[in-house]
Amino acid sequence: MKKALRNLTTFTLLAVISAGFANIGWSADDAIVTVKVEGGFADVSANVRSAIIGKGINISNILHASDMLNRTGRDFGYQDNVYVDAETYEFCSAGLSHKLARINPDNIVMCPFTISVYVVSNEPGFVRLSYRVPTGKPGTEAIVEEIAALIQSIIEEATW
Q1: Of 8, 43, 111, 132, which has the most beta carbons under 10 Å away?
Q2: The domain that contains 98 carries what CATH number?
Q3: Considering its fold, how many domains does the chain have in total?
Q4: Domain range for 90
């Protein structure tokens, strides 16, 4: 009963959070959650950085995905670019990482967490934010919910 109540509470929280987004593509079976908002890449990207840092979390790396893909596309026979701009932010919460590791050391692969911010070439004027739904070893369900809530809160803060 307690677990069912916690799951219902988490679902309700995620539903309330996602209600404010312009367009969210998500179902319980999806491994990737995507939010699409109107706006400019530079603004949304800066908002993501600010939201992560504002939670006292260090950004460990920024992957400039569009730079690499746009630079190498023609080498693989692609004439057009998928992305106008695309970056992935890697970050990790030390507190959540400690909890994960203490339950099962194999959970190390869950960190860093990532949020990708990107504009698709055929949809200028819209910025997408995507993240992988976290999953961990058995016994980490409550911490996984904390991670999902953290990532959702960063996206919410960056897109309001």
Answers
A1: 111
A2: 3.30.310.70
A3: 1
A4: 2-159
Cis peptide bond prior to 134, omega within 30° of 0:
no
Structure tokens that stand for 94 in this block: 């030390």
Structure tokens given for 146: 């904390």
pTM of the model: 0.80
Q: What is the pLDDT of residues 11-48, one digit of tens each?
A: 333 433 443 444 444 444 579 999 999 999 999 999 99
The DSSP secondary structure of the chain, one letter per residue, reads: -HHHHHHHHHHHHHHHHHHTSSEEE--TT-SEEEEEEES-HHHHHHHHHHHHHHTT--EEEEE-HHHHHHHHGGGGT--S-SEEEEEEEEE--HHHHHHHHHH-GGGGGG-SEEEEEEEETTSTTEEEEEEEPP--STT-HHHHHHHHHHHHHHHHHHH-
How does pLDDT run across 102-147, given as a tens digit for each residue? 999 999 999 999 999 999 999 999 999 999 999 999 999 999 999 9
